[in-house]
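Project standup — Tuesday

K.O.: blocked on the structure for the chain from last sprint. Re-posting the sequence here as requested.
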Amino acid sequence: MGVALVLAFTACAAPVPVRPGATAPPRPSPTATPRATASPTAGPTDVALPAPGRPFDAETILTAMRDSRRPGGVPDQLETAAIASALAEAIWTYDGRPWTTMAASGSCGAETCTLELAGARPGSQGDDLWIFDVRPADGTVEVATAELRGLPADLRPSLDALARSLLPDAALEGLLLTNARWLPPPDDGQFELAYRGDGEEGSCVVDLTLDAATPAIVGDPPGGC
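H.V.: unblocked you, prediction finished:
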């Protein structure tokens, strides 16, 4: 499969071709086990949950870093096969399929670097953004933040309906689902949902975590406004 690397969220982006076959099948994780099958499975709520996966190999990640079109690009000390391999092991996508666009950027301090990798596919409601803390001296890579909004746009109504079915009517009355993001393993199947009122100052705000696999609301249910 050909993958084009572009800067998905910056006006100065330019397409960068990548060799065909630059993706790898999902690999097992010592801390999180993907679902048994990659086929979507619908529960009683009819929310299909595909198996997440890690579709990138080290060469794909290394190419993205070397061909970055961001101002300043990616620091040379991050462009190593070992770091690229660690990043490929850490990056999950919602359904195990690769992005069709990718962007990389980074900066370094005295000992630690910050590396950002973002990507999306057509039909998604937004981008996935992974931010890593990297120590070039020993190749340590840790996830600092994962803002994962690369969900199918048509999934949001189903998540909204499921969340409302699990709560009293008053909890989300008059509120709109304005944002949804998915959580990677070991929390796969969970979604962070943001509900907002009319947008005026002092309007109601409700944030909740939905486990669509159970299904259940994680933690204390919202009390409404």
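K.O.: great, moving the ticket to review. The longest strand covers residues 140-148. Helices lie at 58-66, 81-90, 156-165.
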